[in-house]
Specification:
globular
């Protein structure tokens, strides 16, 4: 059975925290050997770190653009201190989740941009890659990245082909998850099929972005059908869809995407060493 890395999974979310140990056990049984747990605000820094240590996973610390509204500038100082405190922690692998979101109405764009720029500076100072939130903001994100030289993962990538190429040119890997399972997601499926294999990593963004087999329409939910809960254990089935789109085996996809994850988040290499060979594939 292939071994997988979920490069973006919110195990601390309320929807998963009620039975998180069982959620993680199901994922492990399905072959998901490692999850990267991003923070979204100072209030969950401790939670993602504790979960990463409990389950042998890794974590990232950052302030999500959707959390910048209530945030104060001294939260950036709190992030700086938290990164310094965790500097010797091998399970801290990135700064994130950070970025820009111009899709959700009512957000202060200027404040988002301030937090994004300041967090890129912190990533450089602490020598960490970033986990980027990209939603109708690819060009603005790229503009800042070109100035800093910071690399990492553009999570849940949904931009254009040209934007994808620009991220890859800057050294980023692009995260693909449940959206590739929807036949109507033509652009994302095209990107997932046509981008160089060394540009792609896998993720679930659990509990968000459920694959199509978990999704229920508003009408179905009104009729009493519950929305399926996305979990990291769905990753192997999502990967099967992506492997089919690319016309390769799941073993080949696992080896490539694991290797890409380590390239994007170098501190993963030491964490995975007991279970993974030099290529990133499970022994």
């Amino acid at each position: 059975m292939p071994a997988w890395i979920d490069t973006h999974c919110h195990l601390d979310a309320a929807e998963l925290s009620v039975d998180v140990d069982a959620v993680r056990a199901r994922a492990a049984a399905a072959g998901v050997r490692h999850c990267v747990l991003p923070a979204v605000a100072p209030s969950n820094f401790a939670a993602v770190r504790e979960l990463a240590h409990r389950h042998g996973d890794s974590f990232a610390l950052g302030i999500h653009p959707l959390c910048t509204g209530p945030a104060a500038e001294d939260d950036l100082d709190r992030l700086d201190r938290a990164l310094a405190d965790a500097a010797s922690d091998p399970r801290l692998v990135a700064l994130g989740e950070i970025g820009l979101d111009y899709f959700v109405p009512g957000l202060d764009g200027q404040k988002q941009e301030l937090f994004y720029a300041r967090q890129l500076a912190l990533a450089r100072r602490h020598g960490l890659p970033v986990l980027l939130h990209v939603r109708r903001s690819a060009d603005q994100l790229l503009k800042q990245l070109r100035r800093t030289g910071v690399t990492g993962i553009a999570h849940a990538f949904n931009g254009s082909t040209q934007q994808a190429k620009e991220f890859v040119k800057l050294g980023f890997k692009l995260g693909f998850g449940g959206t590739v399972t929807y036949e109507r997601s033509l652009q994302i499926r095209r990107l997932a099929a046509e981008l160089p294999l060394d540009a792609i990593v896998l993720e679930t963004d659990s509990p968000d972005i459920p694959p199509h087999w978990l999704y229920r329409t508003a009408e179905q939910r009104a009729a009493g059908e519950p929305q399926g809960r996305n979990e990291p254990g769905e990753l192997p089935r999502i990967a099967q869809v992506l492997a089919g789109l690319r016309g390769i085996s799941t073993d080949a996809l696992a080896e490539a995407t694991n290797r890409n994850a380590v390239a994007a988040l170098p501190k993963l290499a030491a964490l995975l060493a007991p279970d993974y060979g030099v290529t990133g594939a499970a022994r």
